Amino acid sequence: MSRFISRRFDALKQYVPGEQPQDQKYVKLNTNESPYPPAPAVIDRINKAEVENLKLYSDPDCRVLREMLALQYGVGMENVFVSNGSDESLSFAFMAFSDKDTGAVFPDISYGFYKVYAQLYGIDYEMIPLKEDLTIDPADYFGRGKTVVIANPNAPTGIALKPAQIEEIIQKNPDNVVVIDEAYVDFGGESVVPLTKKYDNLLVVQTFSKSRSMAGARLGFAIGSKALIADLNKIKFSTNPYNINRLTAAAGEATLSEPSYYNDNCKKIIETRRWTAEKLSKLGFTMTDSSANFLFAKSDKMDGSDLYRLLKEKGILVRHFDAPRISPYLRITIGTMAEMETLICALTEILSNGGSV
Ligand code: PMP
C-alpha cells in the first residue's frame, strides 16, 4: 500500500476471487461458471458491425436490455436496473441503503463480498451465524432495523429458502430494504421477483454469469420498486453512467432471445448435479442439499484443504474456504458430465490411496 491511500481503508480486507488460471490446463470447477458456451445467437451478434460501433458510447439507460428483462420477468422497465456483473448491483445496494447509522445484516457464511462492501462503505454490519446444519433461520432476520442481505440459494452451501420464508423476512422489516441475491436461482430455487410487486422494500439481484454463460462479459441486474431502482440509478449516474459496455449489452440482448437454450442447459446441470451427488455419496462424502450449480461436500476420510491440493495436482480446480465450520468442505462447480466423471475418477484414486498420489 502506498503512503497516500486514505486512512479510511486501513481496516478493509479486499475480496479474494477464485483462481482464474490463464492457461487451459485445468478442469475448472472452482468459480461456478457455466460449462456451456453462450447460445449461437450471442456468438452471431458480436459481429464486425458491433465491434465498429465501439467508437460510440453505450446507451446509459440500457433501454433494450431493460425492456427485454422487464418482459421476461413480468415487471415494468422502470423496475429493472442493469449492472456490470451482479457484483455492481450489490455494491450499489450496500452503498445506497446502508451506512454507519443504518447497518446491514447477513449470514456469517455467505457470499464473501457482502462483508467487503460493508467495510468499504463504512457500514455497521452484523453477521448472523447459520444454524448447525448450515441453514438460515428466517426468524434471525426479523426486525433487525438494518438492511438484510441474503443469497438465495445461499453460497457456498447451495441451500435455498422458500419464497414464503423470504416473504416473512420482508414483512418483518417494513422499514428496511431486503436484498435477495438470486445468483444461483435458475438451478432449482424459486425466485421472489413476483414479490417485488407487493413490497416496495424488496430488491432482487440476479446475474448473467451462471445460468446464462456470460461470466466474462459482466452483466447483472436488479428488480425492485420504481423508487429502489431510482436510488440505484442515482448511485450509477454518480459513478459510471456507461456501466454496461456495448458488446456486453448486445450479448445480453441476444441471450434473452434464446431462453430455451439456457433452460436446457440448466436442466442438464441439475441432472449432472444429481449424478455427481450420488457418486460423491458412494465415496463417503456428505453434502448440503444444493439448489445451485455447485455441490458443497465433505469427505469422511480427508480434510478439505488436502483434497483441494491433491485435486489441483491432478489438474482439477475446486474451491476450498479456510474458514471456521466450512474448512472440511469443498465447493465443487457442476461442469459437463465428462468433467464430473474426471472428478469422480480423481477422487476415487485419491481416497483409495489414502491421500498419497
Ligand atoms: N452473488 C453470489 C452469491 C455469487 O456467488 C456471485 C459470484 N461470485 C455473485 C453474486 C457475483 O456474480 P457476478 O458479479 O459475476 O454477477
Topology, pairings included?
Elements: E1 27-28, H1 40-45, H2 48-52, H3 63-73, E2 80-83, H4 85-97, E3 104-107, H5 113-120, E4 125-128, E5 147-151, H6 163-171, E6 178-181, E7 202-207, E8 220-224, H7 226-236, H8 246-256, H9 259-282, E9 285-287, E10 294-299, H10 304-313, E11 316-317, E12 329-333, H11 337-352
Parallel strand pairs: 1-11, 3-4, 3-5, 5-6, 6-7
Antiparallel strand pairs: 2-8, 7-8, 9-10, 10-12
Give a description of the structure.
The model has no long low-confidence stretch (mean pLDDT 97). α4 (85-97) crosses α7 (226-236). The strands form 3 sheets. A 7-stranded mixed sheet has the order 2-8-7-6-5-3-4, sandwiched between helices. Strands 9-10-12 form a 3-stranded antiparallel sheet. The two termini are 40 Å apart. It has helices at residues 40-45, 48-52, 63-73, 85-97, 113-120, 163-171, 226-236, 246-256, 259-282, 304-313, 337-352; strands at 27-28, 80-83, 104-107, 125-128, 147-151, 178-181, 202-207, 220-224, 285-287, 294-299, 316-317, 329-333. By secondary structure, it is of the alpha/beta class. The protein has 2 domains: 17-37 and 260-352, Aspartate Aminotransferase, domain 1 (Alpha-Beta Complex); 40-257, Type I PLP-dependent aspartate aminotransferase-like (Major domain) (Aspartate Aminotransferase, domain 2), CATH 3.40.640. α6 links the parallel β5 and β6. The chain contains 11 helices and 12 strands. It binds 4'-deoxy-4'-aminopyridoxal-5'-phosphate. 4'-deoxy-4'-aminopyridoxal-5'-phosphate binds at residues 85-87, 111, 151, 155, 181, 183, 207, 209, 215, 220.
